[in-house]
Fold this sequence. Notes:
Elements: H1 2-20, E1 26-33, E2 39-43, E3 47-52, E4 58-63, E5 68-74, E6 77-83, E7 88-94, H2 98-101, E8 103-107, H3 109-125, H4 128-132, H5 136-155, H6 162-186, E9 203-205, E10 210-211, E11 220-226, H7 231-235, H8 237-246, E12 252-258, H9 265-274, E13 280-283, H10 289-293, E14 301-305, E15 311-313, H11 323-330
Parallel strand pairs: 1-7, 11-12, 12-13
Antiparallel strand pairs: 1-4, 2-3, 2-5, 5-6, 7-8, 9-10, 9-13, 11-14, 14-15
Helix pairs in contact: 3-5, 5-6
Amino acid sequence: MKKLLYILAITMVFVSCKKDEVKDYVTISGKITNPTSDSLVVAQRSIIKSIKVNQDGMFSDTLKVVSGNYVLFDGQEQAYMYLENGFNLKITFDANQFGETINFQGKGEVVNNYLAEKILMQELLLDYDDLMSSEKADFDKKLTSSIEQFEALLKNTPNLDPTFIADEEKSFETMAEQLTTAHNKNNKPSIFNGKPSPKFNDYENYAGGSMSLDDLKGKYVYIDLWATWCGPCKAEIPFLKRVEKAYHGKNIAFVSISLDRANAYDKWKTMVKEKELTGIQLYAKGDEKFARDFNVSGIPRFILIDPNGIVVNDNAPRPSNEKLITLFDGLNI
Length: 333
């Protein structure tokens, strides 16, 4: 009898250990309603994994990770994730309402549903263009209120790892510092407006040949400095297409300059083709002088130059901002 009890005890310990065993990989599965692409991409600074999506929207795969923050891409849509080996996440969303419907279930669901809610809150609270155009007192009030709401969301989310909480609290501080720095910079008198624009020369034109800024004299020039890796840049593409269509035939050229490095040249050409990017699509060929001359520290960056080559606004409203149309209309473009 004692021998039988001993064997049972060993078996119970073995089963218990088996149950608590942490897998050295992440499992990601789920279903997409109204799927529009045949794959999902998990990325950090580069693509970590491409996950096949079946025609019915189902997907499933595994990957090994270093614990930390990742981005899940579905075409142009993206969601932030926190991954650790051992997580088993079932992800569902409607591709037509990506951010509003994405949901995580399973091991790792708490932190990832928190991140999804945080991003929605960020989109609601932090209208970048509105913040940048606000007076200092109003800016401070809006920023303080937003940070307080982020902190409340973090505090009210149970069972988060203490290290993750500390990192999030630090990220709120960093966000406030960066937005304050940007606001201070945006509200300083421009050293470029009203003066001749710096020039770019012989940038490769996707349509063929090359182009320089001087080739566009006689027209207003609305310049978009962007790159294929830049999420906010790509988010402006549908709005830029819409604005360009509305001003087709007017005395204005829409010029998109890719600041991608040489190793992303083919990616730039592919994106221009696949996304049917309109306007004048130029590749800077690694030449950063034009961007440096405008003191560009982040993209997307939009610049408006008049028909005589004079800078109208070196930090023009984005295509998604209604103030851009107000600016164009005020110039009778």
